[in-house]
């Protein structure tokens, strides 16, 4: 009885197909599907990560108001205070907006 179990265990450990240095049997028909699924998984996670990064950048950008040109603002303030004339204002504005 014990010898019968020993033979079964020895047969169970034998490999029906020795791979050696050759290709794995799954690289036959199903191997292409495995590669395609791996590529699709990488694409999926790439899209998810890019979506998260863009979403965070959009949310951070929502807190800021529209960016203004501070040089023009300073020029307008100087004109409003009477520090410069209309001609100087127009000349400086043309220089800044070029």
Which residues sit in consecutive blocks of at least 5 with pLDDT less than 50?
none
Question: Roughly what is the average pLDDT, rounded to an integer?
Answer: 79
| Oligomer state of the chains in this structure | single chain
> Any idea what the shape is?
rod-shaped
- Please provide the ordered H/E string of secondary-structure elements: HHHH
Helix fraction bin? over 70%
Tell me the number of strands.
0
How far is the first residue's CA from the last residue's CA? 99 Å
Largest sheet: none
Radius of gyration, in angstroms, nearest whole number: 37 Å
Précis, in short:
With 98 residues, the chain is mainly α.
Explain how this protein is built.
The chain has 98 residues and is mainly α. It is built from four helices and no strands. The chain has helices spanning 2-13, 29-62, 70-81, 86-96. Helix 3 (70-81) runs antiparallel to helix 4. The longest helix is centred in the middle third of the chain and has 34 residues, at 29-62. It is rod-shaped and about 110 Å long. The model has no long low-confidence stretch (mean pLDDT 79).
């Amino acid at each position: 009885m014990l010898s019968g179990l020993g033979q079964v265990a020895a047969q169970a450990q034998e490999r029906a197909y020795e791979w050696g240095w050759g290709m794995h049997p799954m690289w036959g028909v199903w191997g292409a599907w495995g590669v395609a699924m791996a590529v699709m998984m990488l694409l999926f996670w790439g899209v998810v990560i890019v979506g998260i990064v863009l979403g965070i950048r959009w949310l951070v950008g929502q807190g800021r108001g529209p960016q203004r040109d501070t040089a023009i603002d300073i020029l307008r303030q100087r004109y409003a205070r009477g520090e410069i004339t209309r001609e100087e204002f127009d000349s400086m504005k043309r220089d800044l907006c070029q």
